[in-house]
Design brief:
The complex is a heterodimer of chains A (145) and B (429). Chain A is α+β, with helices and mostly antiparallel strands and 145 residues long. Chain A has helices at residues 15-25, 51-60, 81-91, 119-128, and strands at residues 2-10, 30-37, 41-48, 64-74, 96-103, 110-116. Chain A is built from 4 helices and 6 strands. The radius of gyration of chain B is 22 Å and the shape is globular. Chain B has 10 helices and 21 strands. In chain B, strand 18 (346-357) and strand 19 (360-369) form a beta hairpin. The longest helix of chain B is centred in the first third of the chain and has 22 residues, at 6-27. Classes of the chains: A alpha+beta (145), B alpha/beta (429).
């Protein structure tokens, strides 16, 4: 299972930069950053090294932070690869709230991150269908809560 | 005194009222002119019901007498002055004789004792000291009570927390918004106030709600008591809560309370809401007659289970001058706070921003999300925003916009919180 930081950012110029600087100063390398925004605020979703320590660093600097468990999947690189995964989840009644994808340096396949209501069940369903999920240590340095 | 039979109390009040009226008529030109022009003869008062015929005193009367024109005794008999802030204009000065200072200490000691404080307590007074009556007012009451008194005043919150922990403080006195700020600061310092000996708090000087009381009690691990007072009448010590937490007993041996209709200014029946009016019965330096406080409250009817006969006023809902008129609807910021304190996921820190688009007032309430809110999806935040908006709208009966902001992004106050930013009339689009 992968732990993603969600950071509440009010719509204020420089706020995203402050978040990145806080993580940088605390020595946390970011691997993925995705920002969902509204007209008034945004939520930055971050995969970074040692997420629990990163959360503490951000909170100490006044950010509101949650840790969300998400599912990471290496999607087969062929036409319809992602559709297969989504249809499988859909047929099991698992809703995808949102997703994003990224490529790890040197890796052949892209990694897709799925935010679902019940990540444990999604992992079971995918594993049973022979679609392996990616474990956290291969994405970032893990730490304990 | 607090439990004396009602008839005896009424007789005492009438007697003191007659004395006060005659004294101000003789000693204060402003009252002489006021009474004469209203055709009111101070000797004519034979019943407390005659009060309704006496002219009111308003804040502007005190301002116009700046600095010493309200003194009812020779200047040499005044031993202390305080002043209320001049944010809305000329400051107003109040003077106290040695007798007033002693009486004030008694009233405030009574307030602290009714809340459960005693000589064994260590009292941290984080109200501002100086011209503001909060700090020194509570101070003399605490010493009169025999408690160990820490005159730390407001500000330097980390030091407040350190001293609270190091000295084993048991009682905190400050504004309710500052109490929450102290709890936040302690948490940042890694100190859990609930683990400290602190057990009791006395909070006043700004309107607050029962929900905020619960939050303060939970955050600090204490019992929170509401106190009421205003410098023009005395300072803190005018009315106090007993352990029943069901309204504030007015120190009726020293103050006469009336509630008047906001429009007609006629006294209303007990239980009805209106502006609070006080007449001092025991003050020497600056007695006031029917002073309009601009505070909105009502008399709590019935007798209190604690056995005191002093009548109770309900917690102040708001002030007539804090009252916002939004598209014709009267709104008190404390109503917004009451709503926020009941919604998980948001903090009771808010700011109301008023602006005008064309001829229409628009209201945006900025609300801090709570630091421990678990959020990730935009729709969760939007749901929270909609709930805050719906709850405020149903409480205020006026439509508003809500903006969620980051924790601690709204400026904290060490004194009275600034809840309203009014941009109307500043010519913006």
């Amino acid at each position: 299972m992968v732990e993603q930081l969600s950071v509440f950012l009010q719509n204020e110029s420089g706020r995203l930069a402050q978040m990145c600087r806080t993580l940088g100063d605390a020595g946390h390398s970011m691997h993925v950053l995705m920002v969902a925004d509204t007209s008034e605020y945004g939520v930055a979703r971050v995969l970074c090294d040692r997420p629990h320590s990163a959360r503490r660093a951000l909170e100490a600097s006044g950010f509101a932070v949650s840790i969300t468990r998400v599912v990471a999947v290496e999607v087969p690189d062929r036409p319809g690869g992602l559709a297969d995964v989504l249809e499988l989840l859909g047929s099991e009644g698992i809703n995808v709230e949102y997703m994003y994808c990224f490529v790890r340096p040197g890796a052949e396949l892209a990694v897709d991150i799925f935010r679902v209501e019940n990540p444990d069940r999604a992992t079971e369903v995918l594993t049973a269908a022979g679609i392996g999920t990616v474990r956290a240590p291969s994405l970032y340095d893990i730490d304990a809560g | 005194m607090e439990s004396m039979p009602r008839e005896a109390l009424d007789a005492l009040q009438l007697d003191s009222l007659r004395t006060t009226l005659q004294r101000v008529y003789e000693a204060v030109p402003l009252y002489r002119a006021k009474f004469d022009s209203a055709g009111f003869d101070p000797v004519s008062v034979t019943s407390l019901d005659d009060l309704a015929d006496i002219p009111f005193t308003v804040k502007d009367d005190l301002r116009s007498a700046y600095p010493f024109g309200m003194f009812a005794v020779p200047r040499r008999d005044i031993v202390r002055v305080h002043a209320s802030s001049g944010t809305t204009g000329q400051i107003t000065v109040v003077g106290y004789t040695a007798g007033d200072i002693a009486m004030w200490g008694d009233m405030m000691a009574r307030t602290l004792a009714a809340g459960g404080a005693g000589p064994d307590d260590i009292v941290q007074i984080a109200y501002g000291y100086g011209l503001f009556t909060g700090g020194l007012g509570v101070h003399y009451g605490s010493e009169r009570l025999g408690a160990l008194t820490i005159p730390i005043s407001g500000g330097n919150t980390k030091r407040q927390v350190q001293i609270m922990a190091d000295f084993g403080v048991t009682v905190l006195a400050c504004t309710p918004s500052y109490a929450l700020y102290v709890a936040e600061t302690a948490a940042e310092m890694g100190i859990d106030v609930r683990e400290l000996p602190l057990r009791l708090g006395f909070f006043g000087a700004e309107p607050w709600s029962d929900n905020m009381r619960l939050q303060i009690e939970a955050a600090l691990g204490i019992t929170a008591m509401d106190i009421y007072g205003l410098s023009e009448v005395l300072g803190p010590g005018v009315a106090f809560e007993c352990k029943e937490h069901h309204g504030l007993h007015v120190n009726e041996d020293a103050f006469l309370i009336e509630i008047v209709d906001q429009d007609t200014l006629r006294p209303v029946e007990d239980g009805l809401v209106g502006e609070v009016v006080f007449t001092t019965l025991a003050k020497e330096g600056i007695p006031v007659v029917r002073y309009r406080t601009r505070d909105i409250s009502r008399i709590v009817t019935g007798t209190c289970a604690c056995g005191r006969t002093f009548r109770r006023m309900e917690r102040v809902f708001g002030r007539t001058d804090d009252m916002l008129i939004i598209r014709g609807v009267n709104v008190f910021p404390s109503q917004i706070e009451q709503v926020l304190a009941g919604i998980p996921g948001v903090a009771p820190h808010y700011q109301v921003v008023l602006s005008r688009t064309g001829s229409l007032d628009s209201v945006e309430v900025h609300v801090e999300i709570s630091p421990d809110l678990e959020f990730d999806e935009i729709r969760e935040l939007e749901g929270l925003q909609r709930r805050v908006r719906a709850d405020i709208e149903s409480a205020l009966a006026v439509s508003i916009a809500v903006r969620l902001v980051e924790p601690k992004s709204i400026q904290r106050s060490e004194g009275k919180a600034k809840r309203v930013v009014d941009l109307r009339g500043q010519g913006e689009a």
